[in-house]
Amino acid sequence: MRVPGLSVYADNREACGKTARTEAHAAPAGAVIPRGLVARSPEEARAAVEQLGNNSLLSAQLLKRNVSLAEQEATGLVAGSPEQAAKLAANLLRASDGGIAAKELYISQPTPHDQVWYLAMTIDRETYRPTIVVSKHGGQDIRTIARQHPASIRSYNFTLTKGIPESLTQRIASDLGISSTAETISLGKTLTSLHRIFLDKEGMLLEVRSLARCDGALVCLDSSF
């Protein structure tokens, strides 16, 4: 897929993205993520929301594609109660995407936030260099952002072997309008975490479609690779 000034492997996410697996890698790597649980039945979904709290997000774990945070909220995949979680889970586990039924759900804790941004690491097919892509219009995939808000997309090349230098973190923070030290430090930790996953897993596209600003920290709400 092409976005302004960048050609990325945007189809890779649809081939192998899984929110639960991505976040399982992200937390040990140092990224901040909301607490989440995997459910394989309506009963497990009910129990998960009892632990995590009302208004938890339910995401069907399908190899073809993950539903974005914006789509979840628009289609009612926010469980207002344990009982609603069980009903939603029953429908999601019966449904299919292209003939492939979901076998498990990832249920994440509600996280109040002010804004959500888009953040990704990918390989620029024109320069063959690893690239960080950001936009202030998060909560959706890069295709939608490129179509609706192309001017908001910014990209930054980096070197896999050297990681994310502080100067690059400062540059991205400045472009996003981050002024607080706490958020800049949080951004640096998030970028370092994504770089570690991207390098270890030999990724082609690692997305955080909803990078939320929460009380001085940046939280990965919706991610896949």
Summarize the entry for a quick read:
This is ATP-grasp fold succinyl-CoA synthetase-type domain-containing protein. Keywords: ATP-binding, Nucleotide-binding, Tricarboxylic acid cycle. This protein has helices at 12-16, 19-29, 42-52, 69-74, 82-94, 142-148, 166-176, 181-200; strands spanning 2-3, 6-7, 36-39, 56-60, 78-79, 96-97, 100-101, 105-108, 116-124, 129-135, 154-157, 205-214, 217-224.
Low-confidence stretches: 4-18
CATH class of the largest domain: Alpha Beta
DSSP E strands, number: 13
SS field, number of helical segments: 8
How many separate structural domains? 2
SSE order:
EEHHEHEHEHEEEEEHEHHEE
Mean pLDDT: 81
Indicate the overall shape.
globular
InterPro entries: ATP-grasp_succ-CoA_synth-type, ATP_grasp_subdomain_1
Keywords: ATP-binding, Nucleotide-binding, Tricarboxylic acid cycle
GO biological process, one term: tricarboxylic acid cycle
GO cellular component, one term: mitochondrion
